[in-house]
User: Fold these one by one.
Assistant:
Number 1:
Amino acid sequence: MIMREGIKRGKIINKKSQVTLWIIIAIVIIALIALIFYLTPLKTIFFPSIPQVEFEGCVEKIDEALELIGERGGSMNPALGYAYEGEKIEYLCYTNQYYKTCTMQQPLLKQHMEREILDYIKPETLSCIENVKNDLRKQGWQVSGDSDLNIEILQDNIKISISGINLRKEDTGESYKKFEFYYKSRIYDLIMITSSILNWEARYGDSETTTYMAYYPNIKVEKYKQEDGSKVYKLTERESQEKFVFATRSLSWPGGYGFGEIYTPRSLSLENEKK
Amino acid sequence: MRKNKLININNKKTRNYLIVFLLVAVFLLSLVYFTSLVSAQEVKYCCEKTIYDAWCQNAPQEQCNQEFRSTPTSCEATSFCKLGCCYDSSEGICMENTPQKVCDLSEGTWSESKECDIPQCNLGCCVIGTQAAYVSLTRCKKLSSFYGLQTDFRKQINSEVECLSLASLADEGACVYEVDFVKSCKFTSRQGCNNIKEGMKIGNETEITGGSVTGNVSFYKDYLCSAEELGNLCGLTKETTCIEGKDEVYFKDSCGNPANIYDSSKINDKAYWRKKISKAESCGFGSANINSGGCGNCDYFSGSICKNYKTAKSSKPSYGNNICQDLNCKKTSDGSKRHGESWCSTDENEDSVGSRYFRHICMNGEEILEPCADFRQEECIQDSINGFSQAGCRVNRWQDCYSQSEKIDCENTDKRDCVWKYDRDEVETRKVETTTTISGAEGAAGTTLPTEVSQPVTIACFPEHAPGLKFWEEGEAQGICSLANTQCEVEFEKKGLIFSSKDCKSGCECLEDSWKQEKLVTCEAIGDCGAKINFVGIKGFKEGYKTKTEKVKEEESGGGGLFGISLVLNKLGITGRAVEKQVEVKNIEKERV
């Protein structure tokens, strides 16, 4: 009886040491995998890069660009702007006079925004593309051509194209000349509604926000009239919470009669006062 | 009673004083206006670009950017800043009031029509599947391309309402096709089905189910894909879906196609899954069916729209995950409101310094606050139809109230927003020499002509909502407030020599405090004048008005007899002043808020 218990105990001891051994082996394997990830050349051997995925990582700055441009009325650094809640918001239709409708300042807003976004993301994105190209060369890809970037705002997304690249892998026969990425965004709808509001501002001096909200249930349109006659419009896409904020100054009324008054943007009058 | 308190204009001397005083006030006011008007006209240039980067503005020369053109005329009269229509040929959008230079820089196509009355911008009805838009032809082509559909532009339709009604008449039904010899179906428009036939893309989707169309493609108008007789893969499910651009909750078949409006009682009713049933014939028509577990006939204008029940913070419906979300506003600043309602409000102290009017909107369950123009240059008007209130900001037409001399003109609501505050229907007028500037063609410099206008001798017509004034700036506010200046002559009779006493003979009502109070109310009714409080209820640091009593003339003197009588004429005056210092209080309060 005592012997049998001893044998049993011996078996338990053996089992325990086996488990320990397996744990040690597992730790070693995990450490090796971690080492592979640290040592890039090895990583590329085991996990070869997929060019599409690598280049996609380079265009992530679009997210930041869209947020900034949306808060500033379609320009990264608005020249003619209204200071509102810590941001300078571009005037898209503007008059410095009272009792007059505004003059369009940015008629082709979509194209203007495409250029602005491109200028903003281009330096960093092209530099990232060059790094990816170098990595691909190390993995045996034949890389040639000067890459170029293009942005197009479409109805439900933003198309980012990387062109001018010639990628070719001899052993697999894979080759790429252009990469296209689609970034989901509803900014196109917001731009089109903005264009309509601007036409109303230019023709009648004001716009009716509830009409837009009745036609487009997914869009929220807010209008804030300012002391100097400027208006700040805030357009929000309810699902994605994407925003587009812009300013206008049209058919403004001064305090009193305001005869002969010519309005000077606040920033400029402050500068003059300082002088 | 009120008559006694007013200045007795039948008294010749009083009347003469009053007329002279008002004429001086009107003259000073006109002087302020016209000086500023003339000085502004003198310096106006058309700047192609200003130093603050605005294109094509009429501004003083020092505000013109020297690197760009500028001429001493209105921009409308120049070639480089002439306003026209900027046409975006890629998007099919027309932008009005655009200077040629700005359009050229943006690479648009400019034409002379300011309001875009050009063929490229003519609107028509663009039918896109089962939807429609009232747009230009180029825009229609662009929109159709987004959905992979052929352009269907109907230029003979010339109203938006007609266009939208056309969309509901578009053919819709089951498009049955074979993909890799398996019969499938898509619920789409006839046009969409034709596209499948041609192997074209549908919307943003890739090729049909990834395979190629191998058999006949047939369109069955008004049939649902789940109809048994069509003999395809698509069958009944207990799932529902929301469709972009539509309000209702729809049943979804096993292929992912929408079927009829969700009705829990029809979940297994094969007849309900066979043919398209109109909204009017579906469950709960005429009601919003808010949070209904069994009916998905939502209606945006009645206050509901299809949403996932979790997003709508509602309980799970009997089948599927979508429900008619409640879009009404349960709690607003003015109690509960229905979706789409709007109403007015103003600051607690109406027409006080710094106050303005606001429009509130209940939309999608949210209260949106929309301020009307500052300085009370806009007022909020409101009305309701069957208890559904609608409000809007409207221009406050106070500008010519003071010059009205007849009640009927003053209260003409078609022209102005004024109230008559005089005991008679007319007020005496005087002819006043003034000048009128007639503007030239296309903004060219105008001509100033001497004219004669009738001015009331006293202000009897007041703005219904007193406008805000820039009282902290020199000039205009002081001029407007000075219209409230008034004076009253009180005649005393002095009796006795040694123990003399003064008896009031005429104009005695001016000595009472109520006279002063009435004049102050008049002063405040003109605008931000007098002893007004600001929008947070705080009074200005100064009184806001001045009262002055002076002895005008001793007409007769008793000369010393015991019963000698002397008449003394005293002049009592109130000078309305623009509210001072209150702006500081307002700013402090704003910061505090």
Number 2:
Amino acid sequence: MTTMNCDEFVRLVTAYLDEDLDAGTERRFTGHIAECGGCDVYLRQIRVTVAELGHLPAHGLTDQARETLLNAFRDWSAR
Amino acid sequence: MRDMPEADLQSPGPALPADDVVVEALRCGDEDMFAALLTAWSPGMLQVARAYVADEHTAEDVVQDAWVGVLRGIDKFEARSALRTWVYRIVINRAKTRGVNDARTVPMTSLTTAKEDFDPAVDPGGPRGGSRGADHPLAPPRTPVAWPSPEGEILALEVHQHIERALGSLPARQRVVITLRDMQGYSSDEVCALLEITAANQRVLLHRARASLRGTLDRYLTAQSGKEPTR
């Protein structure tokens, strides 16, 4: 089993998080985490980034747009 | 014939009745059902539209236009995909068209497929500065430093602002993928079907978008180091 370097680690990080690495590559990937503090931190930062994206506030339509659409619905259903 | 039923968008968002119930209610003029759909799906549609157009106002125009398109098309909806998938396709198509027409503000190149979408995805800000950085004698390896915890309320707000700004600088193709995957929780299969891209392409776009946002947060948060406990 060849060891993994940091470039390969970074290239595979998205596939790893999608649980899409084959078993051998996944072992090399997790093996690299154990050996490389920088990549361990990098992976954690990617996870934090993904988590923060999931916490961004989402906004709905403005009241005006909503009212316009409800009116459009009434016109449409009276067709 | 049902095309790619596995790609239907089902999971995220508030619970609504089954598609056939919703569609029948709309066709019968049930305004409460339409109002419930507007509440449930518009926030996600606005985020998706925003990937292609220059500002929130234009995104709202696009979403309004898409909902009108939904009403015009609902009688012909044949349930080949989930209703939500069908609605999202409408908003994406309209947002793309609007983005092209507004090319003054959104570069055309960000709407079309680029060669870089298929290049090996290495993060130039990653642990060793990417392959070029690592090979280059003048580019020292850059080891990531743990971030301060963004738990504090003010810090969390600032993190969100930095992320939103960074999202604005992503090419549309990357932004729509990271919006669907990480902001809205769709699976990679769902995103591929919705955007009609390959799994490999979806992966590269997501990878680049995440790497770019991590880099933005890194620049901001490492500047905060020493002020907050690290994690």
